[in-house]
Amino acid sequence: xxxxxxxxxxxxxxxxxxxxxxxxxxxxxxxxxxxxxxxxxxxxxxxxxxxxxxxxxxxxxxxxxxxxxxxxxxxxxxxxxxxxxxxxxxxxxxxxxxxxxxxxxxxxxxxxxxxxxxxxxxxxxxxxxxxxxxxxxxxxxxxxxxxxxxxxxxxxxxxxxxxxxxxxxxxxxxxxxxxxxxxxxxxxxxxxxxxxxxxxxxxxxxxxxxxxxxxxxxxxxxxxxxxxxxxxxxx
Length: 235
Prior knowledge:
By secondary structure, the chain is of the alpha/beta class. The chain has helices spanning 20-28, 43-48, 73-88, 107-114, 128-136, 156-165, 178-187, and strands at residues 4-9, 31-37, 57-63, 93-97, 119-123, 147-151, 168-172, 194-198, 206-208, 222-227.
């Protein structure tokens, strides 16, 4: 009997924010796989490390994480072959994904290669906009508000056009794009309606006023929440 491939959303960083279902599968699957940089530790594995039984076969899917090279088709192709061998032997596999597997999650690149031939189950996780809203005390949207997710690498004109027609936005994947995005928010008179957080729910979490953020140090795991009314509960 073929094993099952589980895509586990492990949440934004706090080990306690993993779901009960994901925890059960995480601790029972004989094989554990996770994305990792070419050199160094896996963030996804670090998140769940307090929950690991220490008896699993582990597969680090190492890949370049820089934008021009991601996702690396060759890496995912090689990983799929290795995972299929375990499934063919009847072993279940838990594949870790930061946040939620289908919210900009890298697991989708494995899913596309595996789902037609194997049993694949996706276990949703707490995604980063929800985590950022919680730690900022800033609801994302209310009633009939339109919420827009905006990746920071989008060009400035596209970001402006999207911000002009939405009630609320989560601007994700800031990194080196932060200075350009902050300048855009200033130009649109949205600074006072914007909130910044980095590494939400992690040990290194920081909440900083937007005009005090060092433009050279904003990490990839940072986000700006924008609401035109300032707070979602205002009318």
